[in-house]
Specification:
The structure holds 2 protein chains of 2 kinds.
Chain A lengths: L6 H9 L8 H5 L1 H6 L6 H12 L10 H9 L6 H5 L6 H14 L4
Helix pairs in contact in A: 1-4, 1-7, 4-5, 4-7
Chain B lengths: L1 H32 L25 E4 L3 H17 L6 H14 L8 H20 L15 H6 L2 H17 L4 E4 L2 H14 L6 E4 L9 E3 L3 E5 L2 H6 L3 H7 L4 E2 L23 H16 L4 E4 L2 H13 L5 E4 H4 E3 L1
Parallel strand pairs in B: 1-2, 2-3, 5-6, 5-7, 7-8
Antiparallel strand pairs in B: 4-9
Helix pairs in contact in B: 1-3, 2-4, 2-11, 10-11
Classes of the chains: A mainly alpha, B alpha/beta.
């Protein structure tokens, strides 16, 4: 871990999440455990990132508030990555997305 | 629907405004004093009084002022929580404005916490000296910039990291010995990605201590691992090696490498309420195994200690360097 990705790579990693049935990434995510909100867990974060970056015209993507909250509540603790069956470096993907959000003029 | 759109717009406005304010505070302070927040930087060096350091700067002990300022960040976070940005609306805007104003004021450190941080750093110095490690120090030590990177201000971080690197090189530094996990991670793993021709050796003090010359305080402890040391830097085994002699209570889902939980500290400056909830949950889990908790990071200590005080101090927290000593 420790990589920062551009928009395309961030999207590709986010799309690799198969939303598998194990939900082990959520089981170890501290913010999901205390809130029980999917958007504050690894699967939910990846799903929002994929939805936002994959939405070319910005018409149907998630709202700004949800995106900011999902991205900026990640603790970067790495517990989810150790559980991910698709071997997605989830904390790096979320951190890369943060950097993209901060650089990007928001709609 | 109109109300929903309004709320979403306001929350985004508040969060991005808060992040911009935070970025402004951190960036302006780094420019001015090479510290992320406005406080009297003399607290970074107080622990050195009366200690001997080599004149050579080839290998330096580098604190990045993390132990000394962790509680200052904690105090600022407690103030922020009163105007939680997560609440949205006017309170968050006021918080952002207040924070802008606070950028010009000095945060007041608690003298007891400065003394405690000094004791930890002097213990680290003594263990290194006892292990035959000789070190210099920089007269003026810049902060590593870890917070900028962790918040996602990657461009600001990259520019600042280059300045820190140039400063270290101009002092003749070849090896940096770190005292906390954030600084070790950021220098070892992240600087080389952003600083061209980065060639410093970066070593944690934990990897320089001679195991045969230190002994853990006897007792029954549970270890709260730093996420960086444990999962990113693979130092979990080395730390337990240093703690041999103490009785460590382990549990796969509470202290295991893959499943152990974070203290919540990384979001204390953006979502302090969430940081507090995560810390409370973590403290409750750890306390099931032992009331004596060893931490390895000043941010973890500040966050878990705040949760401990909220809960009426059911646990006793120690830094690793407070539990280890000359054998």
């Amino acid at each position: 871990m420790g990589e920062t990705y551009g928009a395309d790579e961030t999207l590709l990693w986010a799309l690799r999440c198969r939303e598998c049935g194990g939900r082990t990434c959520e089981a170890v995510c501290p913010t999901y455990r205390v809130t029980r909100r999917e958007s504050l867990g690894p699967r939910g974060r990846l799903s929002l990132i994929a939805e936002f970056l994959g939405d070319d015209d910005g018409a149907k993507g998630p709202g700004a508030a949800e995106l900011f909250e999902a991205a900026f509540t990640c603790l970067h603790c790495g517990a989810c990555a150790s559980q991910c069956s698709a071997r997605i470096p989830i904390p790096d993907v979320v951190l890369s997305f943060r950097a993209l959000l901060l650089r990007r003029p928001f709609r | 629907m109109a109300k929903l759109i309004y709320n979403i717009t306001m929350l985004h406005y508040d969060m991005s405004e808060w992040l911009n304010s935070l970025r402004g505070i951190v960036a302006s302070n780094l420019r001015r004093s090479r510290m992320p927040f406005p406080f009297d930087a003399s607290i970074c060096y107080k622990w050195r009084e009366g200690l001997y350091f080599e004149r050579s700067k080839e290998r330096i002990l580098y604190t990045s002022c993390m132990y000394q300022m962790a509680h200052v960040i904690g105090a600022a976070a407690a103030k922020l929580e009163k105007f939680s940005v997560a609440d949205g609306g006017m309170r968050a805007r006021l918080a952002a404005l207040g924070a802008k104003a606070a950028g010009g004021l000095l945060l007041r450190p608690d003298p007891r916490e400065v003394e405690r941080a000094g004791g930890i750093l002097r213990n680290i110095y003594a263990m290194l000296k006892g292990s035959g490690v000789t070190l210099g120090v920089l007269e003026s030590e810049p902060y590593s910039g870890a917070l900028l990177y962790e918040l996602g201000f990657v461009d600001d971080f990259a520019a600042y990291a280059r300045r820190v690197y140039e400063s270290l090189k101009s002092n003749g530094v070849r090896e940096v010995v770190t005292t906390d996990p954030h600084t070790q991670y950021i220098l070892e793993k992240i600087y080389p990605r952003y600083v061209e021709r980065f060639d410093l050796k970066v070593t944690s003090y934990l990897n320089l201590i001679d195991r045969s010359r230190v002994r853990a305080r006897p007792g029954k402890f549970v270890v709260h691992d730093s996420c960086y040391y444990s999962r990113y830097l693979d130092m979990r085994g080395a730390i337990r090696g240093l703690l041999r002699g103490a009785r460590l209570i382990e549990h796969p889902t509470i202290t295991g490498k893959d499943a152990s939980q974070c203290c919540g500290g990384p979001v204390e400056s953006t979502y302090p309420g969430l940081a507090r909830a995560v810390a409370a949950s973590r403290l409750a889990d750890l306390s099931k195994l032992s009331r004596d908790i060893v931490v390895e990071c000043p941010i973890c200590y500040a966050n878990l200690q705040r949760a401990n005080e909220d809960a009426g101090n059911p646990a006793r927290l120690y830094d690793l360097a407070e539990v280890l000593g000359g054998g």
